[in-house]
Amino acid sequence: MPDFQYVIVGGGMTADAAVEGIRAVDESGSIGIVSAENRLPYDRPPLSKDLLTEEDTEIDDIKRGTGDREGVTIFLGRHIVDVNRTDKIAVDDRGQQYTYDALLLATGGSPRQLPFDNGDLINVIYYRTLGDYKHLDQLIESRDRFAVIGGGFIGMEVSASLAMNGKQVTTIFPEDHIGGLVFPEELASHITTVYEEKGVNIRAKQTVKDIKPRGRGYLVTLDDGETLEVDGVIVGIGIEPNTELAENIGLEVDNGIQVDGHLRTSDPSIYAAGDVANFFNPALNKRIRVEHEDNANQQGEMAGRNMAGEENTYDYLPFFYSDIFDMGYEAVGEIDSALHTTIRWEEPDEKGWIFYTDPDDTVRGVLLWNTFGEVDSAREMIGRPIEQSETAVS
Description:
The chain has helices at 13-25, 50-53, 130-142, 153-164, 185-197, 244-248, 293-307, 375-381, 386-393; strands at 6-9, 31-34, 72-75, 80-84, 89-92, 97-99, 102-105, 109-111, 124-126, 145-149, 168-172, 201-203, 208-214, 217-222, 227-230, 232-235, 239-241, 257-258, 270-272, 277-281, 286-288, 319-324, 327-333, 340-347, 351-357, 363-369. Helix 1 packs parallel to helix 7. By secondary structure, the protein is an alpha/beta fold. It is built from nine helices and 26 strands. It has three domains: 6-110 and 239-307, 3-Layer(bba) Sandwich (FAD/NAD(P)-binding domain); 124-235, FAD/NAD(P)-binding domain (3-Layer(bba) Sandwich); 326-393, FAD/NAD-linked reductase, C-terminal dimerisation domain (Enolase-like, domain 1, 2-Layer Sandwich). It starts with 5 loop residues before the first strand and ends with a helix. Strand 10 (145-149), helix 4 (153-164) and strand 11 form a beta-alpha-beta unit. The chain is globular, with a radius of gyration of 22 Å.
């Protein structure tokens, strides 16, 4: 039975950051990582951007180097299926047991599935992992027509990357505009026009009713009866947090694994961080769950430090970012088109600040459109009256 001081369930960015945090406090304590993936930890954002569009970006460039650290043992292709919280023993799907003093659940999330997919749609890719990137990269070499389902972060990035590779792309989503759930209508409309000018076929206000094999590709049927013949399909319709293990062992779960300010679960020996963790953020005065790189890095490191004996409070408000064609943005807080928005353009549709406010005109989120290096300033505006924030950038 492997005996570790620290066991990390999950092998993604959060797990790697947790190792950094542990080592900042404890230079020699034994660490075991049990990962469902068959690959060592890597950066996830380049999968839908740089790896697909930049010839000088290689898979080796996104590796985290977790396996090169002293005192770290990584078990790949394994799932932890049970935890004996009394004896502090985790058990994987092969029956292997791992003892721990502190356990971190960094189990991430799984892509939402199409309701009619029975698993035999080989070239329908639920885009999330390095394996998914490799699958799509192979298709790009020999196929030309692609459907992208979803107009959110992954859908936008993959659609742009495929178009930049000269592929025929049709993007399907139920909103009025691509990015319609996050951007104000004025900006979302502009972005949709840019996508169309770049050659992306937009099917707004549509959902996919069915996908059936046809030849080497698929026949995609939309809810209005339109059919599309494509060679491959990429699905990006969000993720569900992987909470099954936490639920089965009796931890508190509600839209993720509930953690306190120190990132402890309802069991003080078990922590959670990354996509799966539901935590209280004082700036927003609410519990949130964040599925972005900055949170994985910051929260993972702090969880590691606390596992090793520190008592840090996670009061950080993460930011997120994206690059699509020649456009890009950074954002912090609640970025939701259902909120009221106030736009302060430096150049209309090209560069500016977008404030998201609640009914009391308090800033809940800030989006920096083609504006970079201002995240710290934007973060300070969260919770302030909109008048103060507008004055700060005018």
